[in-house]
Amino acid sequence: MIAVTIIVVAVPEGLPMSVTLSLAYSMRKMTAANNLVRRMHACETIGAATVICSDKTGTLTQNRMVMNSVFFPALKSGVLTRELSTPVEQIVAESIAANSTANLSRKDGDATSVLGNPTEGATLMWLEEAGIDYLQLRQDFAIEMQWTFSTERKMMGSYGLSGAGGEKILYIKGAPELVMSRCTEILTDKGLQSISHFTDRINAELRQSQARGMRTLGFAFLRGIDHKPEGDLNTVASNLAWLGFVAIADPIRAEVPLALSLCRRAGVKVKIITGDNSNTAWEIAKQAGLIEPGESPEKIHMTGSEFQALPDEVAAGKALDIKILSRARPADKLKMVRLLQQCGEVVAVTGDGTNDAPALNHANVGLAMGKTGTSVAKEASDIILLDDSFPSVVKGIMWGRSLYDNIQRFIMFQLTINVVALGVALTGPFIGIKMPLTVVQMLWVNLIMDTFAALALATEPPHWKVMSRLPRRSEDFIVSAPMFRHILGVGALFYLFLIGFLMYFQRDGTVDTTELSVFFTTFVFLQVWNMFNARALGFNYSSFRRLNENKGFIVIMPAIMIIQFLIVQYGGAMFRTEPLSFLTWLAIIAGTSLVLWAGELWRHFAASSARGEVADVSPFEELVDK
Asked: Does the structure show a pLDDT above 50 at 434?
């Protein structure tokens, strides 16, 4: 029977259940925080993230595109009339309406919403506000060939018979600098002219808009193509006529600067990887608070083509310093992720397009956009961001760190009981007590440490202070040095106290059932109070702090005490117990609770000595608690 008791005590069979409970609880709560977890391991992995490679549009910004200004040289007034009374107005409106795959949704009583690309939607909204029916323009344009937008070429094209002029025409839109590089002419109020005389002026206007964080979109066209063009758009789009560009505002999310500041405190580096131009990307990074005083663009900012051209050995060093990668393609994002991982970083990456799938797959944690992401991106991801926002990524990191902490709390609590119970079971026969705890009693203790403790500690909600420390290293052992000291120190104290207790009962050569009942109850209550200490692992605050937020803990603690009372008072021969008096119960509860009060004092003095040494992250509590 002693061997059976030792086996029951020594095997921590509750650990797998605790891990599973923690993961399941975190998955459910992360969904409420707009993190839909597709792969369970991602709950824990995201907590170890050291780098976040984030998109700009929709993640850092609101993805509510609004046309801010237009720059069409032939359109002197800068506005379109409802009647489209001039050929210039007709070609501008048709280039927007026909060369687009987005649509506007109108519902009674609701605001107009965009179906498809938000950038295209903003241009269609501009037409609608002018009273122009974009659908009619699109229907009147007989499309024969269309090249959808590609992140690789950063352009889109549509070829067909114009409903306005009755001639075949090719419309192009995309990144202004790329579209303009393919233009030889420009449409002005005086007709077509050589673009060479206007290039400097256009670039100055572009820089001015981009410096304000605007997204810019260039338009061009080509007449005189009588046959259906063949091949890729890069081949077809040449000798174009520049039509102009639009500047679209996409305001940054109000909570992003706070979230980025929290990442900085938490030791998580953030990199913006965007298809937007350098000026826009830099301005958004500045608004978000990513750029610190004194940082030079040469060190922290590169374009995707520049980064891709570097050999891996050089690019790996650059990858650690870069904060902004503009005009980036999916291949650039994949290279960044791969090199960061080679440098030992744990990388979380966001993506929404089909071409982002390789980077999402390769990252330690892939995060797809729930609103704007393609099905391919979502399938490749580990977590889906239901609101597409960067603050949700930060909340995911907080939950991941909390999950790891909860597992550590349970391990510390369980191993402490294991050490004590194993020591008592092995030592008992040597001091004349064959079985200090019976097999049935040990099964009850086992139920406490394997099931009840798992339920109580695995569901501990996250505390914002987890974001005040650096990410754990991948090589760190899950039993940390403070945990190891607690297990050995507290375990040794409990062991010595309990063995001394038994030897005191043994002083007259015999131990009766009442004394063993006192010993059994003392053993259980020591673990009950120690569970409070385990709850405070990692933070120097009272174990009663935010206790009301863990409903499981509140229910389980009294339940253990009540069940222990019933076992002792009414268990009889089955549990080898005798009823105890009220004063005995009072003495046991008061005496064993010293474990809790000693822990409270220790944490109080530790907090006092550490005050001012750890960065205060309390201003972020509102963000992470939402």
From this structure: yes
